[in-house]
């Protein structure tokens, strides 16, 4: 599946400069940024899920301690 990404002139120029500095293509830099974003979101969601599970598991104990 293909996607068109529209950037402002300023974003395009900043991306071009970064890619040039790193010796990579603009596409490689953009793909790496997207991969990092997706990985970070997955990590955040997993931490949230684990937190919810911990609260459910320990709620009775915490309620008794609060009394």
Q: Count the helices. How many?
A: 2
Largest sheet: none
SSE series: HH
Instruction: Using the alpha-carbon principal axes, give the shape.
Output: rod-shaped
| Alpha-carbon Rg, integer | 21 Å
End-to-end C-alpha gap? 57 Å
Whole-number mean pLDDT? 86
Would you identify the regions where 5 or more consecutive residues have pLDDT less than 50?
none
- Helical content stands at over 70%
Structural class by helix and strand composition:
mainly alpha
How big a fraction of the residues is strand? under 5%
Number of strands: 0
Can you describe what's shown?
Helix 1 packs across helix 2. By secondary structure, the chain is mostly helical. The chain starts with 8 loop residues before the first helix and ends with a helix.
Summary, kept brief:
This protein is mainly alpha-helical. Helix content is 82%, strand content 0%. The model has no long low-confidence stretch (mean pLDDT 86).
